[in-house]
Design brief:
mainly alpha; 63% helix; elongated
Length: 145
């Protein structure tokens, strides 16, 4: 558990992946994923690998619902760095839980490898967010300065 305590991203990831207050289980999942990245995928520095994978999942823009003239529009806004990291971790959590491998550590390691290759469900959902923002870029002028 030493790498999880020292690295703020991994500690935040453990809190984000937690279910029913069982933080030790989420820490064990992340440690199992680190072991799998080293053993099965040949990653020499798994912590830096996880950082780069989360960077690939961070969205640059998102859309927010905005009421204007009695109708709701999707207005694109840029993501702040903390919000982008939070969204990336949430997308990663939801995506690795939907994978079909046996064992949460294997699923997380597989999703991280897919993210480093810029593929996978997490990257697809990030690209969908960007596409939605691109499609609604005409509504940017509603944003107040």
């Amino acid at each position: 558990m030493s790498i999880l305590v020292r690295d703020p991203l991994l500690a935040r990831m453990a809190c984000m992946f937690m279910r029913h207050g069982e933080k030790t289980k989420s820490m064990a999942i992340i440690e199992e994923a680190v072991v799998e990245l080293r053993r099965r995928h040949g990653v020499e520095r798994p912590v830096e690998f996880i950082h780069s994978a989360v960077e690939n999942a961070k969205p640059l823009v998102e859309t927010i619902k905005w009421k204007s003239g009695g109708r709701a529009i999707q207005m694109p806004v840029p993501c702040r760095p903390a919000r982008a990291e939070s969204l990336a971790l949430r997308l990663l959590r939801d995506s690795f839980r939907l994978r079909k491998e046996h064992g949460a550590g294997l699923r997380l390691a597989g999703e991280l490898v897919d993210l480093s290759n810029k593929t996978g469900r997490t990257r697809t959902r990030r690209d969908d967010m960007h596409r939605s923002a691109e499609a609604n870029k005409a509504y940017v002028y509603f944003r107040k300065a």
